[in-house]
Each structure stands twice: as structure tokens, then as C-alpha cells.
Amino acid sequence: RTAVRDRLVLVDPLRAVRRLRSRLLWSIDRGSHPRSADELLAAVGRDFTIEHEERFAIHHAYLLCVARPR
Q1: pTM for the full model?
Q2: 24: exposed, middle or buried (C-beta count within 10 Å: 0-12, 13-18, 19+)?
Q3: How far apart (Å, rounded) are the C-alpha atoms in residues 28 and 22?
Q4: How far apart are CA 60 and CA 18, in angstroms?
Q5: pLDDT digit string, tens, across residues 24-63
Q6: Domain map (residue ranges) of the chain
Q7: Are the C-beta atoms of 13 and 62 separated by less than 8 Å?
């Protein structure tokens, strides 16, 4: 069961091996567990209907995902 009533908004950094700055930041992040966009979308999609997804980059590549519970 989910604890989300209306919408889930997820913003998570992605594993991006081609981005030097991102690799450096992940190397010093003690709790780092970078995932690909496909892995994150599959995990969210198990319990939610994905309404919108967007990718952007600042220092890391990020996934923005908006979803509703099923």
C-alpha cells in the first residue's frame, strides 16, 4: 500500500558515467546508490501511474517524475 493520496513528485540524481562532475560527486557521496532513469521509472511504475517525466542536469543528471497511485 502507498502512503501517497494524490501525487508523488520524485526528483532523483541519475547514474551518468559520461558526466565527469557527476562521477566525481558520486565518488565522495558515502550513501551513493545511483540508478538509471529506467530503473527508477520501473520502481515507481510498480505502484504508480506515471503522468510526466523529465530529465535535466545541473551538477548531476536528474529525473523528475510526477505520478499518481494506482
Answers
A1: 0.78
A2: exposed
A3: 10
A4: 11
A5: 877 787 667 788 999 999 999 999 999 999 999 887 889 9
A6: 8-69
A7: yes
